Amino acid sequence: MIKNNKKLNTTKKLFKILLTIIFFPFAHIVNVFRSGKGKLYKLFHSLLSIFIALPIWVILVVIIGYFVLLEGGLPLNYFQIVGDSMLPTLTNNTILFTYPTKTWFKTYVPQRGDIVMVTNAKTTHDGKETDYVKRVIAIGGDILRMDDGNVYLNGKLLHEPYLLNADSTWPQNTFCGEYKIPKGKVFLMGDNRLFSTDSRQLGVFANTDIVAYIPFAKQDSYKKNWVSNDSSITLDTHEFIKLINDKRQQVGVPALTENSQLDEATSKRASVIFQYNDTSYSATRSGYTTLSAIGDVGFKEYGPYRDFSLINVQLRADRLEDYFMTRSDLKEYMLNRMYVSIGVTLNKGKLDNCNSDITEFVLFGKK
Fold it and tell me: Which residue among 35, 46, 134, 224 is the active-site one?
């Protein structure tokens, strides 16, 4: 019983010492007033505690607290998202809490699926260097391939539930075919692949370009924003035209009539684009314009027309209609009462030796 009491007393003393250290300024003031010494002594030591010991204590608590939080893996930085390149995960003006890439004892190693903030000479806006927020798709040593709107990583189709649109990943510049990510580099893309400037245009980023991150395992709060994506997309052109006509009806414009000859003309035009690898509006290589195709299919009417191509913008009918309504130039064409007939087809082929899609449109009016 005596030994147990000694252990208990020792524990109490240690606990008291620990509390005294933690709350030293306050403990010192309490001890001064309990000392029974004169008023001048109490005043001097109280002022000493308040104006010297207390500020030092506050600084130490902040430093130690920050260190504990930092090494404990809590997000300590925050940024505001500007733009739509990370839709649907991160919306414009979202406040993003991130983790630092370096602490006293740890250095961040990028992992697939992480959301990262990068900055270097390539990440510019209005001529000024800025931060880009993207997702890590591949890391050093990975073999990446983009084909038919999908990503293949190390020979396997990459499951990407965070995408705004399925089948929306198309290579650009040098990233057609297989590409091995160099050591110490990462390949980054936005979740809104159709509206993201990322590694497809800018190339890979160095691991050291990453200034903050959110691990994939810590992204649960953003998953509620993810949308249901089909594993593959087939454009229903009839549904698309119906949706466009609903919009025309809302603004008091007569419906467009789908014309099979114009459909045939758009297919002919797209096949020549693939054949000559010529996406120019004036068909500088082939000389075969949409008007040439319209003549070849025997379309006899004469009047104003407008044609355009969407290259590697493969969307379901409802999202394609949204795409048109958010682009002022395309919206103006589709809702113009001057046009009365439409032809539209989705075509597949190769551009620059890469599998590609061309959605070809032509609008035709009467004199």
Answer: 134
